[in-house]
Amino acid sequence: MLIRILKNAWPVALLLLLAFVQAPPKKIRLYLIGDSTMANKIKQTFPETGWGMPLGTFFDSTVVIDNRAQNGRSTRTFLAENRWQPVVDALQEGDYVFIQFGHNDEAENYPDRYTPPADYRKNLIKFVTETQRRKANPVLLTPITRRKFDKDGHIMETHVAYSAVTVEVARQYKVPLIDLDKMSRELVQQFGVENSKLLYMQLAPGDHPNYPLGRNDNTHFTELGARKMAQLAVNEIKAQRLPLAERIAKPLPKNAVPPPAGKDAQPTTP
């Protein structure tokens, strides 16, 4: 009799157990739209690295990074080249869109990309409102600083007008703001005039075969610089307690040994 009762009871017990087991969160996509400071790079330009490239390493497997940022694009050219509409069409409820422009919008010497502040504002609003209509989550980011010091070794602001517009739009439309301009200036100041060269594409002749003549670039990042900038964004996601913070990867237990990379694995930013 007891055996028969137990046989009949175990399916019910199993169902009750499953009811209390929390279903894993569904996967979401984190879209990145912006310029070369964020974009994916090809191996011929290595060690240049967009900060969107290492970003995925900070999240667990429920976050898929979809990096649509492109070299040389302003908000105006990103829209004119129809790079935004495919993102809108693909957005699902709960997805995120990180929006970071400004470098090329402010380039008055390049009329093919320059966008006046008033138009820049309109374009940011378009990105924000169309993301919200799809029940996805827009996040505005101010443009990352260029490496520029005054004669006393103090970091200088290089995106004053366009960062201010970004902050204003975020406040008006009540969307999260990650002030990468301010945070990256603080980081570069901490590194100082000489050590900050490690963050940017400052290469002497012979440092890398891709740049036999060297490179003097205070805008684009090395692997180290890209990882540091991505880390700033992730730290701010935590600080603001955005729901996305729940999907940040948990640290490995102490003394844990990471699994070896496969034989076909490519070098990546840690």
TrEMBL record:
Gene Ontology terms, MF aspect: hydrolase activity, acting on ester bonds
InterPro entries reported for this sequence: RhgT-like (IPR037459), SGNH_hydro (IPR013830), SGNH_hydro_sf (IPR036514)
Listed SUPFAM superfamilies: SGNH hydrolase
Entry keyword annotation includes Nucleotidyltransferase: no
Domain SGNH hydrolase-type esterase positions: 32-227
One Pfam family from the record: Lipase_GDSL_2
Residues in the signal sequence: none
Region called Disordered, residue ranges: 248-270
Keyword Hydrolase applies: yes
Keyword annotations: Hydrolase
Family per record: Belongs to the 'GDSL' lipolytic enzyme family.
Name recorded for this polypeptide: Rhamnogalacturonan acetylesterase
